[in-house]
Amino acid sequence: MRSSGELSSFTVDTINYLVMQGMAFTYATARSIESARAITSGLNLSLPVVTRNGAVLADNSTGKHIRRSIFGKKEIELIKDILPEIGRYGFVSCFEGEKMYRMCLECSHTTGLEGYIDYYRKDPSLRIVSSVDELFKGEPGYVTLIGDRDEIETLYDRLKEYDNWESVFSKDTYRDEYWLEICPKNCTKAKTLLRIKEEYGFDKLIVFGDSVNDKSMFEIADEAYAVSNAIDDLKAMATSVIGTNDEDAVARFLTKASQRGVD
In angstroms, rounded to a whole number, what is the distance separating the alpha carbons of residues 223 and 206? Predict the structure, then answer.
């Protein structure tokens, strides 16, 4: 994705052509499938896509959830206990049938969360509720907290003492806020991609990334490439560093790889 928050027509056309020629390609994101498709709807992908950092496997063409994970009652009560101020900092993504709703508490919010709510205020998937219990209505599958570094890192320190979930603390790639994303145990980009690799019988996994939540992929991939605007920690883990997101570096890499006959 470019700094503008979009995929260029060059990237879309290139990936669609390579997929049509037989390249096995998918994407992995912290976004929901609904949010992702606003950016990726032009991609014609035959493989399922990894959303919510691995908590939801979805069809990019239709937005349908193929496989999803939810928190158990024990984890829900533990999160409420550990994060009594959860409504100020974040929202809970809950499934109701095929729909996922973002449940936000009506209260005073951090500047980052208030900005997020304002941006999506007219989106029907955003619901404002009046109690913490209502935040977890339906089948809760993901918790998102947004704020300044110090306050979000404090919440992360509380959560990482427990082994009941997966959590990622990172700075937003395109904004100044810090995010803490919590999803059910064993839901990471890496673990979900490994399942896809096994289920489809692929021999090799090549990944690309720029942020903290890509680290798990870089650890398990056969080859891992960081774009040059990636965080330094990810560059240190990479097989190599390629061009920037604004230079369509991934699409250009894939083109050259296909010309070399790399599967």
Answer: 5
Listed residues 184, 212, 243: the one ending a domain: 184
Which residues are paired to 139 by β-bridges? Answer: 95
CA–CA separation, 251 vs 15, rounded Å? 7
Residue 59 falls within a domain, yes or no? Answer: yes
Q: Which amino acid is at 263?
A: D
Alpha-carbon distance of 144 to 34, in angstroms, equals 16
Q: What is the CATH number of the domain that holds 106?
A: 3.30.1240.10
How much is the pLDDT for 261?
63
End-to-end Cα spacing for the chain: 23
Structural domain total, the chain: 2
Residue 3 lies in a domain: no
Residue-wise over 183-213: b if at least 16 C-beta within 10 A, else e? bbeebbbbbbbbebbeeeeeeebbbbbbbbb
Burial call 135-174: b when 16+ CB within 10 Å, e when fewer: bbebebbbbbbbbeeebbeebbeebeeeebbbbbbbeeee
Q: Is 219 contained in some domain? A: yes
pLDDT over 90 (residue 60): yes
Q: Tens of pLDDT along 171-202?
A: 887 778 999 999 999 899 999 999 999 999 99
CATH of the domain at 27: 3.40.50.1000
Residue 2 lies in a domain: no
